[in-house]
Amino acid sequence: MDQWFFAEGNSQQRGPLPADELIALYHSSRIGLDTLVWRDGMAQWQPLETVAAEIGLDIAPAAEAVEVIAPGPTLPPALPAAPAASAAPADPAPPITPTAAPPPRQGLSGCAVVGIVAAVVAVLVLIIGGALAVLAVPAYRDYVARAKATEAIAALEPIKAAVAEFASEHGRCPVNDDEGFQPAESYADGAVGAVRIGRFDNGHCGVEAELTVPGSTSLDGKLLWLDYDGEQQHWECSGEPEDKYLPQHCRG
């Protein structure tokens, strides 16, 4: 049975756990369809939605919108009947002296008013849309950078296990040339460009991974360090990227 990991809040790795527990977390709203998940054999972390069919997660379709028909306008009451004409003869009206008609008042036509209103609304939409874009684009870039860093650290998990096993069996730190390991560039995959294996200045075994994220000045070319304390059998994570791009357990 496959064992799954998930990233809680895109910062804290949780697992391993079986698929049915992953489904239970989704139904309890602890995780969503956009939560990043991973299992052994996957090249990189993926949203839960993309592996729903694989683990047997049924996603309920969105409820159909119900069209609401507004009631028709209320008709105005009928006009009162005109009063009956008097039978008595009326005094003759004075003669009407013809006068010149006043010039028609100049004003905006209905189409012109509609056009002005539409133009004002369009300008407001552009201003609001631009302001939202200024706020949304940096936030989205930070989200993508955090996801890439999390993906890279998850890809190093098998290497960490191999380093710990080698150190336990041989009493020394492995290097890339040792049996069971590969040249640094051979580990290139996803956001990881190269992985160097050896011993840090403090005497601990460790892994140094170089990130490759084209277009991201926050991550591209930056280094991640995984430090293994053999006596405590404990790993410490740190790196060159800003803390906001790293998982919680890798922040300084």
UniProtKB/TrEMBL annotation:
Task: Quote the biased-composition stretches of kind Low complexity, using this chain's numbering.
Answer: 81-90
Protein name (Swiss-Prot/TrEMBL): Type IV pilus assembly protein PilA
Question: Of which family is this protein a member?
Answer: Belongs to the N-Me-Phe pilin family.
Q: A Gene Ontology biological process annotation?
A: cell adhesion
GO annotations of cellular component type: pilus
Region (Disordered) spans which residues?
80-102
* Origin: domain of life: Bacteria
InterPro entries for this protein: GYF_2, Pilin, Pilin-like
Q: Which UniProt keywords apply?
A: Membrane, Transmembrane, Transmembrane helix
Q: Where are the transmembrane segments?
A: 112-137
List, as start-end ranges, the regions of compositional bias called Pro residues. Answer: 91-102
Q: Which Pfam families match?
A: GYF_2, Pilin
- GYF domain sequence ranges: 4-52
